[in-house]
Each structure stands twice: as structure tokens, then as C-alpha cells.
Amino acid sequence: MENIKFSSAIFLLVLQTTIFLVSAYDPSPLQDFCVAIDEPKSAVFVNGKFCKDPNHVNADDFFFSGLDVVGEPNKQGSNVTQVNVGNLKGLNTLGISLARLDFAPYGLNPPHTHPRATEILVVIEGSLHVGFVTSNPNKLFTKVLNKGDVFVFPIGLIHFQLNVGHGPALAFAGLSSQNAGVITIADAVFNSDPMISLDVLTKAFQVDKNVIQYLQKQFK
Description:
Elements: H1 2-23, E1 78-83, E2 97-103, E3 108-113, E4 119-125, E5 128-133, E6 140-145, E7 150-153, E8 158-163, E9 169-175, E10 183-184, H2 185-190, H3 198-205, H4 209-217
Antiparallel strand pairs: 1-2, 2-9, 3-8, 3-10, 4-7, 4-9, 5-6, 5-8
Helix pairs in contact: 3-4
Binding site for Mn(2+): 112, 114, 119, 159
Family: Belongs to the germin family.
Pfam families: Cupin_1
């Protein structure tokens, strides 16, 4: 009987420790990096944002207006209107954000990643060819979505949306971070500051340096 009680006590202790460890993990990063400093007066960025005095909070802190406005398409024929902690302060610490995606006919939201968020997309109007690529092996999962269809892009994976209809398309996306971040692959590779070495890019893409230089000029 004593052994049973002892075993039960050990089990409960292990269970409590496990629960504590599960609930005591570091928060997910909300920016690309957060370098530790010893002097708080030198602090500029934090993982998240400082909190407003609750006595000064009002309804406007939880309000955003403008998602009814059609975005002006860029040179790829798409526009993304983001609603994140940058323009809706009440999202701070809530771990969610939103975006409106407008597409001109045959417009593209080019391959990109959200380093800090999973994305769920719902098509409101039109037809979109969407897909994402896994890490290793690089397998493509793709689908044509129509009005009312939903698709999920797992966190951090390269994904895209292409309007395959003859008219404009509209979609809304929810993201599992107040500041999901976005890395557009071609822009990051060919338009970084400073530029990535030609030696690196010619070897990586296995093309002549003139091809790389041509691609770099497209993003100037």
C-alpha cells in the first residue's frame, strides 16, 4: 500500500512539473530578432509593444476602418491591406491579425513567407490558384479556390496566390500573430540592403552574373 501511495505521489509530482514546464515556455517572437541589452535606457524595440495605461484605453483602440476599400494593385497586380498591431493597437498580445487581398485580372501575390504566423485564406470573389511548398523535401501543395473556399498556409512556408479569373478577385486572410512579418522571396534575394554577393547568387541559381544583375535591376 505504501509503495502504491509513493508511486502515486511521484506520478503527481512529475505531472505537476510537466504542466509547469508546458506553461512556462518563452513567448513566440514578434520580430526578426530582439538583442538583449544590459542598459534599459538603450532599449528601442521589445518583443511586442509596451502596454497603454488601462485608464486611458477607449473603444477606438480596438477599432479599424477601411477594409471596404479596394486596394490599388502593384506591378504584380495585387494589393495587401494589413490590419495588425501597427494600425489596430488593441491587437497587442492577442496573437492575431488580418489582411485584405485584392487582385487585378491575372494578378499575383508573389511567393513569400510569414515567419511568425500561419495564414488562413477565404475567397470572397473570383478564383485563385494558391499553393505552398514544404521545407524538405520541397513538395508543392496547390489548389484552385473559388468563392467561399478556404485554404491554410502553415507558418513560415513559402506560399502564393494567383488570380486565374477574367475579373478582379478578393480574399481575406487571418494570421496567427499580431505582427506576422512578410518576406517576399524575389525581393529579399535580389533587393536586399546591402546586396547579396554576385558570387553567392550565381552559384545558388547556377546562371551567368548578367542574369542576376538583370533581375536585381527589376527591383530598383
